[in-house]
Each structure stands twice: as structure tokens, then as C-alpha cells.
Amino acid sequence: MSYTFYPGCSLDGTAKDFHRSTLAVAAKLGLELPEIEDWICCGSTAAHSSDPLLADALPAQNLRAAGGRTVAVACASCYSRLKMANHHIAGDPSVRAEVARVVGEDYDGLTPVRHLLEILGQDMQREVAAAIRRPLAGLRVACYYGCLLSRPPEVTQFDDAENPTLMDKLLETAGATPVDWPHKTECCGASFSISDSSIVLELSERILSMAQAAQVDCIVTACPLCQLNLDMRQEDVEVKYGRRYDLPVFYFTQLLGLAMGCSASELSLGSLVVEPKVLLESKGLSMAGARA
Amino acid sequence: MNPVTLEIQEIGGSLACEIKTLSGASPMSCYQCTKCSSGCPVAGRGDLKPHELVRLVHMNQRHAVLTSRFIWECTSCHTCVTRCPQKVDIAAMNDTLRALSLSEGLAAADIAAPVFNEVFLRSVRKRGRVHELGLMAAFKLRTRRFLEDLDKAPMMLKKGKLPLRGARVGGRSEREKLFRRAAHGGEP
Q: How does pLDDT run across B72-82, given as a tens digit for each residue?
């Protein structure tokens, strides 16, 4: 199977581990992910907060470059922006004309966009099940989807907006035990991580505390911003609110990869800030060869 | 509870109309059920809750709306519009209100989001992609927040999460034109 891949900027930096583990899992599944040539940033929050036309034009340029092939996206923020641009452009001829004037070429808004969770959990369900070598037995996980995958539902059409289960089912296939918990789609504070971290600490505290109350071993994410906020800022939350969590925060591709027999190094497990070593070894999963 | 006292400047829909034209959101459809405020992750922080912001729009309280901190603390999580029985798109409305607040010079000086957005988009314009380390450095220089998160950069460098050199995509002059045309509503 082959999809045109739009990695997005985070996957070359703070989410390098998401990138590596995605490619490792793809290799196990025979999934090819050639990148859109010369892809550029989708504009993310900065564009839609400043200039609605730019916020549609940047994704349009990328989606046009995909030449009508289905685009695979890993980052939830990119996914949301690409889907939003499609929604605006395909739904309103005047927006389509405006965007065409900005980009310099017409784009119809019809290039399909799929998140990796949809590809692995819907398009390749059988291949994923067949690739599991080391089931993650006894690992209790809280699947955390964040905001941007499932909202607004008219735009993303991703799973169920209030109670998505795609990631839960994938982790279950991998032998883990996903728990039912109420903060699957709460907001972590997203890009306020840099511009006003007090928002991120307040919002992430609720998510971490709820995951802890659900008695999980770890949190699983599908978004670079969610992962960074819950992992890198976990200690800041502990200090500010006087709590102790010690909850590793994985990308779902890292746990799937472990279950498929990928090495810790292929999955960049050494990049995680909250060390997962003790947890994984207690479940009989080796961290040997982990590197950043 | 004390009743909120408003000094009514003008009742009417000019701000609501402007919002509708610029964002497509329909604030006038709101019947104040407060479902948005129940789900809003930042409703407890700001000076306003989302349903109160919409009510101020109903009352055409332009100054109160454009000076509010709430429009800047909104995380664009879209919980409000997802749950709204009237589909009032408060997230889209806030994008428009932020732009209006900036262009009219009404955003409080300590709100850093506009600086973040500016350095972010400059990176995209120049390189085609965002280089996170460069973005953080530029943001700190502009906001003079040198002491915040001092421990983070070395830790992230060690974890391989902050490459020193960022990627660059060709076609810079074309990209410059794209940004200019976007700023001028599609005109060159």
C-alpha cells in the first residue's frame, strides 16, 4: 500500500521520534510513504489566527502538489489544517477562486487526507493484526486523541467526535489494555506551550491527573503538541501543582512498533522525557538499544 | 450572585455582521444555553466565558470584545462549536476578533501570541518550513523572556528533539509572492 506523506515541520524536530517510529511501523507493514515533493508548512495556528486566506492557501499548495493521491498525515495539527482548507475550498467557490489567486493555480479541495490512525486502524487493520509479534500484555494505556483529530466533526469526519476509539482498537490489537476514561479529547493547551505555558500547565494537569485516576501505566498520543506538552512539561506540572505522575507519554506508533518487534532505537524511545525503561521492563519489553 | 452591569453603547448587529462576513460564524443564532462555556478548557481563566463573549457581540460591545483576554486565551480546540446546538463557530469568530483586535491596537501589551504568530510565519515565509529552535530563539529575543524554560533547550538538544539546522525549501521568491497576495486578499 502507498500514500503520499505530508510529515509536517514538527516531525523533523520535536517529533522526530514520531517520524522514526512511523517509518519503522510502515516498514513492518509494507506501507510506502513517499513525501510530497518540496512540501511547505501548513501554517498551523499562526496562520489561522492571523490571516484566513493564508491559512487556506498554504495547505492548498501542498495538497495540489500531491496530484490527487491520498495524503497521509501524522501530525494532528497539520491534519486539521489540511482538512479545514479542503472544507473551505470545496465548499465555497468564492474561497476556491481567492485561494487560486493567492497560490497562482487552481485547487479543487478534493485531495483525500487521512491520518495515520485512520490508515492503520481502518485501511490496514488486517495487516496490523498480522504484524504483531510481541503483544503488550498487561500494559494499561490511556489513549489521548486531543482536539484536532476529531473536531469539528463536519470538517475532519474522524471517528466519533466525543468518544473516538480508533487508537484504542489499535492498541488492543497490539495486546495492550486501553482504559475507558473521560479526557480522550480534552485540550492540552497546544501551541501555547511557547507563548503562554501557564495555559498548558493548567490544562495538562487535568489530563495527567485523570489518566492517573484511571490507573494507567502510560498515555498514548497521536499529536506532536499533545505529546510534547504531556511529556516535556510533566515535571513542570508536578512542581506547580504538587503532584507526582511519572507517566510515560508515547506516540501510538512507538507502542505499535514495540509490539511488531521493532527495536527501541528504531522507535526513538530514548527521546522520551519521562523515561519508559522501568515500565517497559516490568512488562517484559526490552529497551535495549534505545537512542534519542 | 451579582448581576453584571453593562453600559450599553448601542444595541444592534454591526459587530455581529462584521464577524459573519469575515469568519462565516453566526453569533446572532446563539440562545445562551452556555454549553460552550461548560466545555471550554479556558473558560475558568479569562475575563469572559465564551457565551458571555457572544452576548457582548449581541450587544455590539466592540471595545469590551476586542480588548478581552479571552479571545487570546482560546486554544482553538473547537469544543464549543462541536457541541453548540446552533453551530455558532466561536473558534472561527475568535480568529477574526484577534485580527481585528490587533489591527485596531486593542490587544493588551503582555499578550505574546501575536509575536509568536509573527515569528512563526516569518520562518515559513523564508524557509518554507518552521525551524523550531530558531523559532524559540526569535520569540525569546522579541519578548525578552530569557529566563523562561532555560532547562528545556539543553534537554531537548540531548534528546535529539531540536536539530540545530532546519530544512529549507526552494522557491522563496514564489513564496514571498504568495504571502503578499494573501495579505492583499488575492491581489498581487
A: 999 999 999 99
Q: For A218, list phi and psi in degrees, rounded to 5.
A: -165, 170
Question: B175 at the A interface (CB within 8 A)?
Answer: yes
Considering CB atoms only, which of B73, B114, B124 is closest to A199?
B73
A195·B73 Cβ contact <8 A: no
pLDDT in tens, A96-155: 999 999 999 999 999 999 999 999 999 999 999 999 999 999 999 999 999 999 999 999
**Residue A263 falls in which region: left (phi positive, over 0), alpha (psi -120 to 50) or beta:** beta
Q: In the sheet that A113-115 helps form, which strands lie side by side, from edge to edge?
A: A4-6, A71-73, A113-115
Q: Which residue has the higher pLDDT, B118 or B149?
A: B118
Q: Which domains does chain B have, with CATH numbers?
A: 14-103 (1.10.1060.10), 113-183 (no CATH)
Q: How many CB atoms lie within 10 A of CB A135?
A: 13
Hey, what domains does chain A have and what are their CATH numbers? 4-116 (1.20.1050.140), 131-282 (3.40.50.11810)
Residues of B with CB below 8 A from A147's CB?
75-79
Q: Of chain B residues 82-111, which have a CB less than 8 A from chain A?
A: 82, 89, 91, 95-96, 98-99
Size of interface A-B (CB pairs under 8 A): 177
pLDDT at B62: 94
ipTM: 0.92
pLDDT level of residue B6 (50, 70, 90 thresholds): low
Helix (H) or strand (E) holding A197: helix A197-213
CB contact B22 to A (< 8 Å): yes
Name residue A250's beta-bridge partners.
A220
